[in-house]
């Protein structure tokens, strides 16, 4: 086993706490075996965080959290039982295992139940640079949030109110272990600063904001810059118009473009597929996107938001293509959904890791010039997506693009199409990546959609 241990601050007791969780998991696995379980798995977590909120220069909330959780799953053949607790007393831990075993004895056989194959377990655990704890005091966090809001409110005289600003830091420790002898430890941190502002008066008021999030403090945007960006976005929305219903190109800004990738992920995920509730059934090997388009999964990316050496089943992760040359290469499967479909797991129990979408263009402004006339979407509302048919209809707000220029704000509109047709008609993906998500995509231009307005 190749384990790389990074330097740890003397005040950082995370490795000791991880070992405590690992010891607990081993004791629980032994107890499950003693009670007759043929297989077992344990997930342990220890999370700590600080979250502060301010509004109009006043403190609204200061919340410090510390949560622990232990989840035990046992298998008696192909019968499964699960139980959980937050109580680390020995009597409670033993009771949790006993409850899981009792449940398993009364469930029906499930042919897909059981651990992932032992040969697939991760064996190497490289340092993925995801652990950057921030010893942020409540006073310092409040100062950041207040500075962020103040910068936004002072940036433009048209800012009339505030929905508040926040600063948060969190750290998470987790251990997954199973009766194959596998034990995996993970440490992660996450920090954020954000602000939401209101511009205008009366019925003409508009709201928008901005935030920065990262695994490491040094990767966050400056608090004052976040506030000014929030103000800029908010005042840009003043005096919106509607639009005449028509078909036209639609350009998704980076922060909303990732929702299109999210719809793809939902449609090719195991649960939707074995329930026959996806518009992309039996689509592996099918061209869904233009030939230049690709999506690669990079679970071993250093400092990636969803980097991991193993998935929720302990299966070793690896870099692999989801879309190559426009073609769907594989589904997104954990061991359970893979068995249901008669396919091998793709090491995606718990979801996808870091995704990188192929770019073929520069930034949003250059793509708008390429588009000529159409709609730039910066906000989406509602959940009008049919996962079975792919029909897509969502409320939207953004800006009218005329002759390649971003002209004026629009709202009260609906954009509609079918996801299969939308995927096939993507004309451009920008290099202006929004790094605040594990889905790394820039702006996305869809060549033709129906835009419905009130004019």
From TrEMBL:
Annotated EC: 3.4.24.-
Q: Please report the stretch or stretches of sequence annotated as the Metalloprotease TldD/E N-terminal domain.
A: 40-104
Would I find Protease among this entry's keywords? Answer: yes
Report the residue ranges that make up the Metalloprotease TldD/E C-terminal domain in this protein. Answer: 246-453
What gene is this protein a product of? pmbA
Q: What is this protein called?
A: Metalloprotease PmbA
Q: Which GO terms describe its molecular function?
A: metallopeptidase activity
Keyword list (alphabetical) reads:
Hydrolase, Metalloprotease, Protease
Family per record: Belongs to the peptidase U62 family.
- What superkingdom does the record give? Bacteria
Q: Which residues form the Metalloprotease TldD/E central domain?
A: 132-238
Record InterPro entries:
Metalloprtase-TldD/E_C, Metalloprtase-TldD/E_cen_dom, Metalloprtase-TldD/E_N, PmbA, TldD/PmbA_N, TldD/PmbA_sf
């Amino acid at each position: 086993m190749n384990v790389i241990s990074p330097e740890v601050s003397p005040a950082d007791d995370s490795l000791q706490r991880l070992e405590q969780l690992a010891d607990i998991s081993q004791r629980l696995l032994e107890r499950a075996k003693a009670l007759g379980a043929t297989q077992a798995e344990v997930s342990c977590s220890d999370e700590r965080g600080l979250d502060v909120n301010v509004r109009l220069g006043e403190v609204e909330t200061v919340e410090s959290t510390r949560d622990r959780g232990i989840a035990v799953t046992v298998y008696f053949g192909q019968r499964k039982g699960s139980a959980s607790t937050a109580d680390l007393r020995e009597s409670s831990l033993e009771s949790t295992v006993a409850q899981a075993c009792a449940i398993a004895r009364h469930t029906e056989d499930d042919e897909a139940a059981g651990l992932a194959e032992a040969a697939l377990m991760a064996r190497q655990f490289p340092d993925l640079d995801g652990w950057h704890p921030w010893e942020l005091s409540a006073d310092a966090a409040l100062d950041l949030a207040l500075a962020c809001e103040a910068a936004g409110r002072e940036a433009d005289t048209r800012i009339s109110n505030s929905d508040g600003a926040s600063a948060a830091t969190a750290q998470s420790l987790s251990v997954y272990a199973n009766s194959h002898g596998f034990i995996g430890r993970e440490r992660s941190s996450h920090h954020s600063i954000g602000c939401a502002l209101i511009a205008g008066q009366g019925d003409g008021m508009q709201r928008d904001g901005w935030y920065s999030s990262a695994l490491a403090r040094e990767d966050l945007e400056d608090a004052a810059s976040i506030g000014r960006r929030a103000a800029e976005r908010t005042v840009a929305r003043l005096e919106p118009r509607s639009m005449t219903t028509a078909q036209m190109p639609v350009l998704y800004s980076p922060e909303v473009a990732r929702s299109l990738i999210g719809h793809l992920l939902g449609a090719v995920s195991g649960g939707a597929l074995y329930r026959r509730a996806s518009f992309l059934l039996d689509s592996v090997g099918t061209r869904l996107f233009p030939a230049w388009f690709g999506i690669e999964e990079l679970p071993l990316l250093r400092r990636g938001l969803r980097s991991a050496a193993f998935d929720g089943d302990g299966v070793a992760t690896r870099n692999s293509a989801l879309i190559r040359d426009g073609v769907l290469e594989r589904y997104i499967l954990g061991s359970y959904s893979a068995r249901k479909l008669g396919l091998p797991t793709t090491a995606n129990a718990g979801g996808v890791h870091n995704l990188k979408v192929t770019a073929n263009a520069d930034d949003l402004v250059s793509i708008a010039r390429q588009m000529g006339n159409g709609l730039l979407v910066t906000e989406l509302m509602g959940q009008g997506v049919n996962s079975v048919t792919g029909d897509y209809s969502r409320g939207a707000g953004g800006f009218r693009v005329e002759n390649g220029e971003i002209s004026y704000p629009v709202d009260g509109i609906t954009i509609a199409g079918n996801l299969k047709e939308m995927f096939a008609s993507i004309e451009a993906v920008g290099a202006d990546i929004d790094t605040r998500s594990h889905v790394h995509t820039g702006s996305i231009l869809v060549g033709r959609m129906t835009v419905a307005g009130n004019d």
